[in-house]
UniProtKB/TrEMBL annotation:
Residues 1-145 form the Out at first protein BRICHOS-like domain. This is Out at first protein homolog. Residues 169-237 form the Out at first C-terminal domain. InterPro entries: Oaf, Oaf_C, OAF_N. The lineage of its organism: Eukaryota, Metazoa, Chordata, Craniata, Vertebrata. It comes from Grus americana (Whooping crane). Belongs to the OAF family.
Length: 239
C-alpha cells in the first residue's frame, strides 16, 4: 500500500522473476488508470504500460492502452534476485518513498512494431498486447539497441514538428481530428531503487559489508508523442 500525492492510498504489487531476470510493478493511479512498469534486465529494456479509462460519452473506447519502451540503465532498480527476496512484514503499512527522484521528460519520437517487438524484449508481447498501435520509444534508445544487434525494421520514426510545421501540442489543438503531440504523465510512487549495505567487523578486526535492506524511491515521467488525431489524447487538455 502506497500513498498517492493527493493523499489517497493505493495498492501496489511487485513481482520478480530471477530466472528470466525481470521485475514488474503495478499500481492504480488516482484517476483510475492502471500503470505497469516491467524491467527486463537481460535486454536492458524497461516498459511502461498505462491502461487509461476512456471517455465513452466523447466517443472513446472503454479504455486506451499506451506502451512506452526505454533503455534500462544499471542501478536504476534493484536486481531481480534481490527483489525476489523482499518480504512484506506488515501488509497494512502505508509506505512512502524515502527519496523523490527528479521528473524525467521524454520525447518518444519512434513507433515500435508490435509483431517484431519480441526481439527487443519478450515481455512486449504480453505487456503491450492491448497497445499494439501505441508502442513508443526514443531515437537515442533505438541507437543503443541497434548497436546491440537488434533488428532496426521494428522501428519507425514518427512525424516531428520539423516535418509538419503546424503540428501543435494536443492541449492547444482545437480540432479533435487533427494530428498533434500528446503528453502523458505517470508516476511510480514506490519502488526499491537501491540496496543498502552495512558494515560488520569480525573478531580479527576485518571489515566486510553485507546487504542489509533497500532504499525506496518515487519517480515521475512525462512522455510526449505524436498522435494522428487529438481524439486519442483527450486527457491532455487545458482545464
Amino acid at each position: 500500500r502506497v500513498r498517492l500525492p493527493g493523499g489517497q492510498v493505493t495498492e501496489e504489487s511487485l513481482q520478480a522473476d530471477s530466472r528470466s531476470d525481470c521485475i514488474s510493478l503495478e499500481l492504480r493511479t488516482a484517476d483510475g488508470a492502471l500503470v505497469t512498469l516491467t524491467a527486463d534486465f537481460r535486454q536492458e529494456v524497461k516498459i511502461f504500460r498505462a491502461l487509461i479509462l476512456g471517455e465513452l460519452e466523447r466517443g472513446q473506447s472503454q479504455f486506451q492502452a499506451l506502451c512506452f519502451v526505454t533503455r534500462l540503465h544499471r542501478n536504476e532498480i534493484i536486481p531481480s534476485e534481490s527483489m525476489a527476496k523482499l518480504r512484506q512484514k506488515n501488509p497494512r503499512t502505508v509506505r512512502q518513498a524515502e527519496e523523490v527522484r527528479g521528473l524525467e521528460h521524454l520525447s518518444m519520437d519512434v513507433a515500435v512494431n508490435f509483431s517484431k517487438g519480441a526481439q527487443l524484449s519478450s515481455h512486449i508481447h504480453n505487456v503491450c498486447a492491448e497497445a499494439k498501435e501505441a508502442i513508443y520509444t526514443r531515437e537515442e534508445d533505438v541507437r543503443f539497441w541497434l548497436e546491440k544487434g537488434v533488428d532496426g525494421s521494428m522501428f519507425e520514426v514518427l512525424p516531428q514538428t520539423s516535418d509538419l510545421p503546424d503540428l501543435q501540442r494536443c492541449k492547444l489543438c482545437a480540432d479533435r481530428w487533427k494530428p498533434c503531440i500528446c503528453s502523458y504523465s505517470l508516476s511510480i510512487e514506490w519502488y526499491p531503487c537501491m540496496l543498502k549495505y552495512c558494515k560488520s567487523r569480525d573478531a580479527g578486526g576485518k571489515v566486510s559489508s553485507y546487504k542489509c535492506g533497500i532504499r525506496s524511491c518515487q519517480k515521475g515521467y512525462t512522455f510526449d508523442y505524436y498522435v494522428p488525431q487529438k481524439q486519442l489524447c483527450l486527457w491532455d487538455e487545458e482545464t
